[in-house]
Amino acid sequence: MGDAKAQEVVHAHNQIVRDALRAHSGDEIKHTGDGIMASFSSSSGALGCAVAIQQAVAAHVEKHPEMPLSIYIGLNAGEPVVEDSDLFGTAVQLASRICDKAGPGEILVSNVVRELAAGKGFLFSDRGESELRGFEDPVRLYEVSWKERE
User: Fold this and answer.
1) What topology does CATH give the domain 3-144?
2) Which of left, alpha, beta for 130 (phi over 0: left; psi -120 to 50: alpha)?
3) Separation between Cα atoms, residue 109 and residue 80, nearest integer Å
4) How far lies 143's CA from each of 1, 47, 103, 130, in Å?
5) DSSP string computed for 118-136
6) Could you state, in order of their start, the residue ranges of all structural domains in the chain?
7) Given a cut of 60, is residue 150 above it in pLDDT?
8) How far apart are CA 38 and CA 78, in angstroms?
9) Which of 76, 107, 129, 143 is most buried when burial is the number of CB atoms within 10 A of its CB?
């Protein structure tokens, strides 16, 4: 697609994600080159933001079918180590590994996120246990439903 077109995709991605972060009280921690790491004070805020991102991407692709934009989202909850305005530790590593398991347009979450968001109106589908690099035990993952019901 070339560098100029690729940058257009990156700019569209960044705009969609940053708009959703502002709307859902998320904090951008860093840009990772092809993604954005963010943190939230609540699991329901993170889930609401993830759903808003996927819905905005779907709307963008519908308006711009020539632009191949898809986003993979992985969420985890925990107590990261904060250092120099960045986040580190097991909670962050697990979120990254969960994101690696997600496919285009998917939101995958750990069991702890699902449990923390119980009763908040989100729909989860059990994706079973996954072996994740760097983690001894398999991790149960859930997919979040985000498409409008007809």
Assistant:
1) Alpha-Beta Plaits (3.30.70)
2) beta
3) 17
4) 31, 11, 10, 13
5) TTSS--EEEEEEE--TT-S
6) 3-144
7) no
8) 13
9) 107
Query: What are the residue ranges of helices labelled H in 64-144?
Result: 90-101, 111-116
Task: Give the 3-state secondary structure of residue 70.
Answer: coil
Residues 5-49 have pLDDT tens digits of 888 888 999 999 999 999 999 999 999 888 899 999 999 999 999
State whether the Cα torsion 11-17-22-26 is positive or negative: negative
Cα–Cα distance list, 99 to 2, 5, 37, 139 (Å): 26, 25, 11, 13
Q: Which two tokens stand for residue 36?
A: 């954005």
Write out pLDDT tens, residues 76-130. Answer: 999 999 999 899 999 999 999 999 999 999 999 999 999 999 999 999 999 999 9
Amino acid type, 129: E
Query: At CA 132, angle to CA 128 and CA 135, rounded to 5?
Result: 115
Sign of the alpha-carbon torsion through 99, 100, 103, 109: negative
Amino acid, res. 12: A
Paired tokens of 19: 């708009």
* Cα 75 to Cα 91: distance, rounded to the nearest angstrom: 10
